Amino acid sequence: VTDTVIERPESNTDRRRRALAARPRTVALGAIGLLVLLSLVRVISGAEDITSSGTASAALRLAVPIGLAGLGGLWAERAGIVNIGLEGMLILGTWFGAWAAFFYGPWIGVMAAVAAGALGGLLHALATVTFGVDHVVSGVAINLLGGGIARYLSSIAYGDGQVPGAGQTQSPNTQPLPKVSLPVLSDGPDLLGRLERQRWFLLSDVAGILKGLTAGVSLLTLLAVLLVPLTWFVLWRTAFGLRLRSVGENPVAADSLGVAVYRMKYAAVVMSGALAGLGGASLVIGSIYREGQTGGRGFIGLAAVIFGNWRPGGLAAGAGLFGYADAIQLRAGSAVRGLLLLVALLLVVVAIRQALRRRIGLAVAALLIGAAFALWYMTVDSVPSQLVGFTPHLVTLLVLAVASQRLRPPAADGIPYRRGQQT
Amino acid sequence: MSLLTAERAEPVPPPPPAGRSGPRFDARRLLLAVVAPLLAAVVALAVASIALLVSGSNPLTVYARMLTEGTTLRSLLITVNNAVPLYLSGLAVAIGFRMGLFNIGVEGQYQLAALMAAAAGAAVSLPLWLHIPFIIVVACSVGASWAGVAAVLKVTRGVSEVISTIMLNVIAGGVAAYLLVTQFQEEVEGSNNTKTAPLDETARFPILDPGLRMLGIEPPQGTRLGGFVIVALVVGVGYWLLLSRSRFGFELRATGLSPSAAVASGVDAKRMTIAAMLLSGALAGLVGLPQLLGTSFAYGLDFTSGLGFTGIGVALLGRGSPVGIGLAALLFAFLERSSATLQRIDVPTEIYVIMQGSIVLSVVVAYEAVRRIGVAQAERAVRRATDPGVAA
C-alpha cells in the first residue's frame, strides 16, 4: 500500500474559492481603513461635515434612488436585457408616486410609483423580448416617452392652477412616510449623538456615521436597503433566480433545459421597472415632484451596476459612494476640499500596494497623481460645485477604463434572443 | 452586444439598417416597406389619441387645429429653422449607427462645442470670409475630440460607447458650466444671465429672406429663414456621398453589418471605429451653431439643450438615409411647432413629446416586425426553390 499523497495543482476553482473565503476579511479591512482615512481627513482639514451624522443621513437618502435604479438594472441585465430606459421608468415613478401620494396618501403613492415603473418595464419587455428591438434603442425611446408623459400629465393635472402649491412643472407637497430611529443609541438618550459631539478621532467619526444611518430613517429607505440582500437571495439562492440568471448567460442552453426564457425575461424587466419606480417614489414621497428632478439618476444607477460588477453588494457600495459624493456637495461645499485630501491619501495607499507587488511604474504614477491632488488641496480654498457634480460619472469612466477587463457582465447581456434561432 | 465588450455580438443587426433591399426588384418586399411606416403611424396616432382623450379633448379637433396652425407660412419657416439642428444631430447619430456604434453623447458634444466655439469666436476679430469658417472648425474639432475620448476608451480598453458617452454627457455639462462661469463669462450691467461675450457682426450667419423674396415669398413680420439650412443640405449631400459613394463609407457600412466579415476582408476595425466616432462628434459639433450663429450670438446657461437626445429619435426614424433623416427632422419640428398654440384650446403643448416618443418606438417595433416577416418569407422561398419535396 502506498500512501503517497498526490499533490494536485491549484485549479482555478480553488483559487476562486480561496478568494471568496478571503473576501469578507478584505471588505472589513477596507472599510476600517477607509474610516481611519476619513477621520484623518476630518481632523486635518477641519471639515466636520465629512463624517457628520447629517452627511451620513443625507448620503443614505440620496443613495436610495440610485441604488433602486441600480437594482432595477441588475435584475434586467442578469436576464440579458440592457435597460437604458431606467431613467424614463424613474421619471414615471416620480410623477405617479407624487400624484397618488398627494390625493390618496403616501403608501398608495408608493404603490402607484411601483406600478407605473413596472408598466414602463412591461413596455421595454414587449419591445425587446417579443419584438426583438435593439435594447438600447427601446430604452432611449422609453426615456423620451417617460419624460414626455410626465410633462403632459403635469400640465393636465396641475396646469390649471386648481391644486394649491402645484404648477405646470411641479406637484404639491406630499405626506412623508413614518420614520424610525434606533432606540437609545440614536434616539432618546442619543448615545451616538453625544459621542459624535466629543470630536474624538475615529470614535466620534464612527458614531456620527452610525447615527446618520440609524436616526430618522424613512420606512421606504429601510425597504430599499433590505431589497439589496433580498435581491441577492432571490437571484443567487433560489431556483427562480438560477433560471433567471441562466437566461442572461446562455438563453439557448436554458431553453433546452426547459426554462421559459421569454417568461423569465419578462419577469426580470417588469421587476426592473418596478424597482426603478420605487426609486422614483423615494424621491417624491414626503417632498414634491419637479420636472427634471431625477437628474440622470437612472443612468447613475446603471453606472452603479457596472461599478459593482453586476453583484448586489458591489452595486450597493457604488450607490453609497455616489450618494455620499452628492451629500457632501449638497450639504457642505467646503467639505469637498477635504475630499481632495482623501483622494490623495487613497492614492498613496494604492501606490504602497503596487510597490509591494513590484509594480514600480504603477506605484510611481499613483504617487504622482496623489501628489497632484495634495497640491490641489493645499492651493485652493474650495472646489467649484460644477466640477463636483459629475464625480460619480468620472469615477465610473475611470473604473471602466482601468478595470473593464476584470468586470464580468452576464454573457448574453444585450443580445436579442429568438427561440429556435441560434443567435 | 454587451455593455462592456468592444464588439457588438456579430449577428445582431445594427439598429437602423437602411438599404437592406436586395439588388432585384421585389413587389412583396416593396409592400412590406410601405406597411412598416403605415403601421407605425397608426400605432403612434392611437397612442396620441388616447393621451388626448385622457386630457378630455377630442383628438380630431386637435389634429385639425395642428394641421391648420402648422401649415401657415410663419409656422413652416419656423419648422424649417428648428429642423436644421435636429437634422444635423440626427446625421451625427446616424453615422455611428451605420457601423453599429451608438453615440448617445451628441448632447454633451454639441454643448461643449457650442461653448468653445462661442468663446473662440468672440475672442478673435477676423474678416467676414474667415470668421464663420473659423468658428465651424473650432466647433467640429471640439465635438470630435469629446467623441474621441469615447472612441479611444472603446478601442484601447474595450469600454462600451453607450456607457462612456452617457457619462461623458454629464461631464461635458459640468465642464461647460464651469468654464462658462469661471473663464468665458461676460459681466453685463443689470443682467443676471450668464453668457459669453457676443459675436462680432462678421460671425453672424446670413439669413435667406432675400432669397425667399426672389421666389416670391414674403416672410411674415419677425420671421426669418436662417442660412444654416444651406449648411445642413451640404452636410446631408456630403453624408450621402461619403457613405454611399466612397470606399470609406463602404467599409464603414460593411463593418456595421458584419464586423468579422469586414475584418476578414482587410478592414481595420479599430481605425474605422475611431474614424466613425470622430466624424460623428464633428457633426455633433455643428448642432449648436444654427442658434449660435443665427439667433443668440452667444452661449449662455439658457442655451437650448436636449437636441442630442432628440437627434437619436430622428436618426432612428430616418433609418440612416439622409433623406429619411431630413423628413424625420421636419416631422419632429412640425409636431413641436404645430402644438405650440394648443394651449389656447386647453390641450397641453407637451402632447408633441408623447407623439415623438411613440412614433420612434412604434417605428422601430414595426420595422423589426416587418423585417422578420420578410426574412421568414425569404427563407420559405429558398426552401421551396431548393427542396422539390415541399409542396408550394
Q: Layout of helices and strands, plus pairs?
A:
The complex is a heterodimer of chains A (423) and B (392).
Chain A (H helix, E strand, L loop, with lengths): L11 H34 L7 H26 L7 H19 L1 H25 L4 H24 L20 E2 L10 H7 L5 H12 L2 E2 H19 L1 H11 L1 H6 L4 H24 L12 H11 L4 H20 L3 H22 L3 H20 L5 H4 L2 H13 L20
Antiparallel strand pairs in A: 1-2
Helix pairs in contact in A: 1-14, 2-7, 2-8, 2-11, 2-12, 2-13, 3-4, 3-5, 3-11, 3-12, 4-5, 4-11, 6-7, 8-9, 9-11, 12-13, 12-17, 14-15
Chain B lengths: L26 H28 L4 H12 L2 H25 L8 H18 L4 H30 L3 H24 L24 H6 L13 H18 L1 H11 L1 H6 L4 H18 L2 H8 L10 H12 L3 H17 L12 H36 L6
Structure overview:
Chain A has 17 helices and 2 strands. Chain A has 423 residues and is mainly alpha-helical. Chain A starts with 11 loop residues before the first helix and ends in a 20-residue tail after the last helix. Chain A has helices at 12-45, 53-78, 86-104, 106-130, 135-158, 191-197, 203-214, 219-237, 239-249, 251-256, 261-284, 297-307, 312-331, 335-356, 360-379, 385-388, 391-403, and strands at residues 179-180, 217-218. In chain A, helix 1 (12-45) runs antiparallel to helix 14, helix 2 (53-78) packs antiparallel against helix 11 (261-284) and helix 3 (86-104) runs antiparallel to helix 4 (106-130). In chain A, strands 1-2 form a two-stranded antiparallel sheet. Chain A is 70% helix and 1% strand. Chain B has 392 residues and is an all-alpha fold. Chain B has helices spanning 27-54, 59-70, 73-97, 106-123, 128-157, 161-184, 209-214, 228-245, 247-257, 259-264, 269-286, 289-296, 307-318, 322-338, 351-386. In chain B, helix 4 (106-123) runs antiparallel to helix 5 (128-157), helix 4 (106-123) crosses helix 11 (269-286) and helix 5 (128-157) crosses helix 6. Chain B is globular and about 85 Å long. The two termini of chain B are 38 Å apart. Mean pLDDT of chain B is 86; it is low at 1-23. The interface between A and B is large, with 55 and 54 residues.
